[in-house]
# Entry
Amino acid sequence: MSQYYLSHLKELEAEAIFVIREVVAQFEKPALLFSGGKDSIVLAYLSRKAFAPARIPFPLVHIDTGHNFPETMEYRDWLVNELDVKLVVGSVQESINKGRAKEETGWNASRNALQTVTLLDTIEQHKYDAAMGGARRDEEKARAKERFFSHRDEFGQWDPKNQRPELWNLFNGRKHMGEHFRVFPISNWTEMDVWQYIFAENIPIPSLYLSHEREVIVRDGAILSTSPWLKLKENEVPSKKIVRFRTCGDMPITGAVESEADTVEKIIEEIAASRKTERGTRADDKRSETAMEDRKKSGYF
Amino acid sequence: MNYHQNNQLLRFTTAGSVDDGKSTLIGRLLYDSKSIFEDQLEAVEASSAKKGFDYVDLSLLTDGLKSEREQGITIDVAYRYFATPKRKFIIADTPGHIQYTRNMVTGASTANLALILIDARKGLVEQTHRHSFIASLLKIPHVIVCVNKMDLVEYAEDVYEKIVEDYKAFSSKLEISDIQFVPISALVGDNVVHRSENMEWYQGATLMHMLETVHIESDYNHIDSRFPVQYVVRPQSKEHHDFRGYAGRVAGGIFRPGEDVLVLPSGFTSKIKSINLGGEALEEAFAPMSVTITLEDEIDISRGDIIAKPNNHPNADQDVELMLCWMNQRPISVNTKLFVRHTTKEVRGVLKEIQYKLDISTLHRIENVNELTMNEIARVKIRTAQPLTFDSYRRNRITGSVILVDEGTNETVAAGMII
# Structure
């Protein structure tokens, strides 16, 4: 006798697949925003499940800041081949060259905010009407109120006070010309759910997430990898540490954690015991209490 | 290894009045279940200090948007997550003011359970009635009534008993099948996660224990088989040249390969050839699974069709009666045209008649109305351009629900429960 209920992971999977299929059914030209991080990797694997045995019917769009970890780029190219899916790259460097975006200066300069320009340009250039992302509501306060189907005006902006109510599993993707949607199929997943799913489904992940030895510096409590884009201050001396990354952002701003976890199983154990959120290692969220809300309003991921 | 891998998922909604401690209760649940991280707590401690509080205001954990933090109120539905070794929880945290009925309805639409907070000093108030009515209207299967702020009434048993009695008398008029009660203090933590030492007279479970054990296995309909087709999968590759799969999420009942099916609205019949997900063949599919179904016969099926069983299938009709919650700033009057979204189908429709409006605080019917304004609930008739294939909401929350979409602005303007 079967038991007619799903585990929480299976229920979250079913929900995400439903949302991904709604996107393909309701929009003309959808795309999946692929960062190389674990959330967008899970999204890509869910997309494969949703349409098997057919190929994934939309491209992966990577907004390349030019400051990626080499491991992220290597994984991206492997995955595109593995899933037999189309890749579209939007280049932040190109936006800077064209004068569309201006490089930040100073010690904590990053290309994080510049991505918004390239992202919106790429969406407009390819006429994508729905861009799926791996954002989760548990990540950050402003994300807790985000919809699955998030409407963007013709300027790509998000208006948190004027969101469409979202009821049952009825998603309203109607829009006017020039507007688009951001869709977040794994909205209801937590960091732990993502890792458990990666473990349960045996999904390959970039080596960055696993414990390894790396040359780093410690700045304002954050462990940063040395890289051509990280300017060292006078008193900063790189040293070797055994670390791993909990998120996969830009190399100069993504902090590592000291960790011996070299398997997904050990990562899950580590997260279960951890007392800090994953975004606690991201310098981009620490700029102000509403940093994420402000970036989201202007069209960020 | 079992890091909560096979837990069940419980979705619950919280509703409460402005000052009855809802945010504090959520903060308490997250805090005592160790779901708050150090950096989140540091941020809340810093904000509390900035506001001049001499305690850590746990309610600050849940106020998300800048304007909400400025005004100290919750505007929108916010979703929170926590897990215990037994279950994973999703909280739809909704504000309690009357102008936010639409948010409560939104939060309630996907919930297995509603937490209703009552201030022990005040007893049942108008908002208690409203929240309970919405839980009943949206057919939330389980309700837990938390009598909060017991610390402010000296943990008196008779105060609690009186509120329980009042609530039972009131709720007998509603359709809520499973109600539990618990006396708590969210501020101090009594009976939230840990048993209270201040209420020896209370022999029941803590709130957390109730959340972890309430029986949710029967919340989905596993009797009436319904499969709204979302998308037709056609690989168009050499290997799968003839593959034609119907992708969708089971809305009710159980489907197995070899079974006879009826496709609506066409009325064609066939047999299930296979049920798959991600290339893996499944022996059965039940709600809320997302799967791909193939049939023995090549028949014309597209998005919006419903696969059911020959001896048990939904009705098809162009005239639909609904309980409607109007959610838009601009009122609606009779004869307004709209888009009607039902399962995976969208059709044009028109509001034919407003039979009566409900005062959701008193449950009185108001007749002879021509217009509905934001946050009003009414019984209405709509007529659609093509037939909808539906069940009553009471029978199935998925095939019995609709949203209405404005033709001009594309906004979602109403939620409807089919009678």
